[in-house]
Amino acid sequence: MKNILLIFASFYALQSCAVESNETASHSSNESAELEKKKSPSKNLEVAYFASGCFWCVEEIFEAVKGVDEVYSGYSGGIIKNPTYEEICTGRLRHAEAVKVIYDPSVVSFETLVDVFFNSHDPSTFNRQGPDSGPQYRSIAFYSKEIEREVILIKIKALKATNAWNKITTEVKKFDVFYMAEDYHQDYIVNHPNNGYVQSVSIPRFENFKEKMPEILK
């Protein structure tokens, strides 16, 4: 039965690019810039960026954390401006599916967000997360300040010390730019709860995370 479920999950993952490509969405650079401008945080909020597999899953996880004001799905870490989802799916642009986490530091710290990041995915798999494979699904912890870089490195060192993982493949990368994903990717799980991939991959991943850090959930 376990093998059968894995086959179905892999099937949905392989089909996700094709299914999503058929949905209606516009993604011009001007529209993306305007959308990003409208969604800039207020003065008392801060921003963090992470990539850890399918952004549908990652967005849902961070949205559930106390102190997180909003999460947006997008692309970061690659080599071209204003990429589209179809281009990302090729894996050749080096962009990863990423999330922009807008949070209140008086409620939740960057350190806790890094804990959420590492507790909600497998950082030991190279260019893969669950049934999804390719550089667009790789693990990246972005930092904008040196103190954030130090927090990430300390967490990685602690993980290695516990032998929780055989290896850590997470990139620790200085943040450069974040491109908003197409509108239909935002709040995807909320808007498409019966989607096959959501049912077989996203929801189980979210439930697994909830068991690890129930105290920080909304």
Description:
The chain contains 8 helices and 8 strands, in the order ααβαβαβαβββαββαα. The protein is an alpha+beta fold and 218 residues long. It has a single domain, classed as 2-Layer Sandwich (Peptide Methionine Sulfoxide Reductase, Chain A), CATH 3.30.1060.10. The strands form 2 sheets. It has a 6-stranded mixed β-sheet with strand order 7-6-1-3-2-8, sandwiched between helices. A two-stranded antiparallel ribbon has the order 4-5. The protein starts with a helix and ends in a 6-residue tail after the last helix.
Q: CATH superfamily membership, which one?
A: Peptide methionine sulphoxide reductase MsrA
User: Might you state the CATH topology name?
Assistant: Peptide Methionine Sulfoxide Reductase, Chain A
Give the amount of beta strand, in percent.
15-25%
Q: Report on the biggest sheet.
A: 6 strands, mixed
- Along the chain, the helix and strand elements come as HHEHEHEHEEEHEEHH
